[in-house]
Amino acid sequence: MAVTVETLEKLERKITLTLPVGTIQNEVNTRLRKLARTVKMDGFRPGKVPMNVVAQRYGYSVHYEVMNDKVGEAFATAANEAKLRVAGQPRITESEAASADGQMAFDAVFEVFPEVTIGDLSTAEVEKITTEVTEAAIDKTVEILRKQRRTFAQRAQDAGVQDTDRVTVNFEGKIDGEAFAGGKADDFQFIVGDGQMLKEFEEAVRGMKTGESKTFQLAFPADYHGQDVAGKTADFMVTLKKAEVANLPDVDGALAKGLGIADATVEGLRADIRKNLEREVKYRLLNRNKQAVMDALVSVAELELPKSSVQSETERMIEAARADLKQRGMKDADKAPIPDDIFRPQAERRVRLGLVVSELVRANNLQAKPDQIKAHVDELAASYEKPADVVRWYYGDNRRMAEVEGIVIENNVTEFVLSKAKVTDKTLSFDELMGQN
Q: Which of 68, 242, 292, 318, by CA, is between 20 and 30 Å from 357?
């Protein structure tokens, strides 16, 4: 059967579908008879409800269901015959065009996926980041691990507070003589020098002795998270109730053993830290470079965006945002008014990138190979105590395996683009990559 496809604008198309009335009615009757065998109604035994009663009660809903099914099937058949790649769901309405006797006509308006043109990748510019795990990075990690396992002992009463001390204080702050929310606490504990408190607060506590009280002024930054006090200056009184000196464990075999290192030596500890840091650096570099590649790829591609795909992605992101608000404890989060405009630019980028990547994968055979997927799963599992269990966990769920496949495809695309583009190498320090500066 020849299918006539009308182009409305850019990616929008229209097909007129026709369905025989008799076919619709026959299917409705078949479903009603099937329903009559199991339906329960007061005054009738199961399976003994008269057909006219079943039709009166359920006829409309069954007819609506059949229409949806048959029109959907007709659209799928027509789109397949016309070799159309349909984006999103069609909008189907009764056709205003006259239909033949015994026929019903419907107009299906929909979008098709665009033709994607990828330009010359050799003109794309990509900045590729590299980072080395240095001895200094390992030293810093050792210190972090020591801090996580530090213990505290009471500081002498006549000795002043120093950095790294854990202090317990009472404090009260006022702005223009008025107390404010969050400005008062008793038995509040923090470690001096860790940055948990604002600079002026820590500076006031340094040198204090147990039992001592002090007043000082504190200027809240303009961008302070508490909007009621942001940019204002408060008068505080703080009383030091207790000060404790930090004791860090020695860097020795005992520390390595306590961390579960198989080779419980200092050398074994540092080797294990290096391995873990190199793994983390590898993934961070991969993500940074992958992002740069995707930006470059989009810059040399030309395509129209299907509005339906963008809208679907926008709605998905809004639902994800509502789910996040709900998880954070927001009441009626599922009804929170979230404007489309907030997510539309990001949705457009995701749709554009998805279409461009799909075309590049198709044109250059960059699909994930089974051995690549296996290698990636094995690598993910290697950092766990029982890798075999983790491998089974991945292979036991199609959704998880689909996520792995997607990552492998992205990696293939990244390597392919880097092999073609103008690549500029840039070295970042470990701290810069890890966001510690």
A: 318
